[in-house]
Design goal:
This protein has two domains: about 30 residues, no CATH class; about 120 residues, Immunoglobulin-like. It starts with a helix and ends in a 7-residue tail after the last strand. It has about 150 residues and is α+β, with helices and mostly antiparallel strands. It is globular and about 55 Å long. The protein is built from three helices and nine strands, in the order αααβββββββββ. This is Thiosulfate oxidation carrier protein SoxY. Keywords: Signal.
């Protein structure tokens, strides 16, 4: 029976050795689009994903509170009934980085996601669905924040 601290210490040592030798799995970073997550505006995010200007659609839904009491934990739910969706995004227009969440969709995944995100101030929130042919569809909702979560 190994004490928990010893196991944690050994695990940290192994992870450190793997990272130092370059053997740490890079597959965790394969889907990371640093340009998109650094983008400051909605059009810049769409450009980073190779999608055109999004068109408004009733087939994309966004559930968010009208007023968020605490901008540090704002709940969002997005879904779509569009066929051939490959990615779904949540964008907050006035955040320091507009893209707050990205979900990859396959045939095995139902395009229905729930998450929480930070909002620094009241802003429009977009739910965007990008299809396999590069077309983007969105819906948006204004969320008012009473206490900022991004350092506000």
């Amino acid at each position: 029976m190994h004490p928990r601290r010893a196991i944690l210490k050994q695990s940290a040592a192994v992870a450190g050795l793997l990272a130092a030798t370059g053997l740490f799995p890079r597959s965790a970073f394969a889907a990371w689009n640093s340009v998109a997550f650094a983008a400051k505006s909605v059009p810049d995010v769409m450009k980073a994903y190779g999608a055109g200007a999004p068109a408004e659609s009733t087939s994309v839904t966004l559930t968010a509170p009208d007023i968020a009491e605490n901008g540090a934990v704002v709940p969002f739910a997005i879904a779509t009934s569009l066929p051939n969706v490959k990615q779904m995004l949540i964008l907050v227009e006035k955040n320091p980085s507009a893209l707050v969440a990205k979900f990859d969709v396959t045939d095995a995944v139902e395009p229905n996601f729930t998450t929480r995100a930070k909002m620094g101030q009241s802003s429009d929130v977009y739910a965007v669905a990008i299809t396999a042919d590069g077309k983007a569809y969105y819906t948006k909702k204004e969320v008012k924040v009473t206490l900022g979560g991004c350092g506000g």
